[in-house]
Amino acid sequence: MKALAALACGLLFGAGLIISDMANPARVLAFLDIFGAWDPSLALVMAAGLVPSTLAYRWHLRRQAPVLEDRAQVPSGGRIDAPLVIGAALFGIGWGLVGLCPGPAVAALVTGRWPFVVFVLAMLGGMALFRLFHARR
């Protein structure tokens, strides 16, 4: 049941990215171009996402446990450390350079265009390298 719920959520998220055109790197790069031809649509999509997110979080607070788990896995407000800052910087640099982050890149795979395939393969390679080096520490 958990796998089916995860698949449904992933498909819904991916469909939303495709329908809102947020899997289009040009749209994201236009959002980041604040001194040029700025496109505010990404900000509107993010703002619209706050409504269901807020409602779901408020619903979560009233429940004893999640629907498909024994307990919720909510961040407990950890500290800001070097790995977090470095990871956030790498994410932001990559996003700003190519206009893609993991969710939209995976959703864009349905187009079959090679730049998305290359991005996802590079992303998976980066994840594998992280696991390799993290396992050694």
From TrEMBL:
Transmembrane segments: 40-59, 80-100, 112-133
Record keywords, A-Z: Membrane, Transmembrane, Transmembrane helix
Protein name, entry field: YeeE/YedE family protein
Species this chain originates from: Pseudoxanthomonas spadix (strain BD-a59)
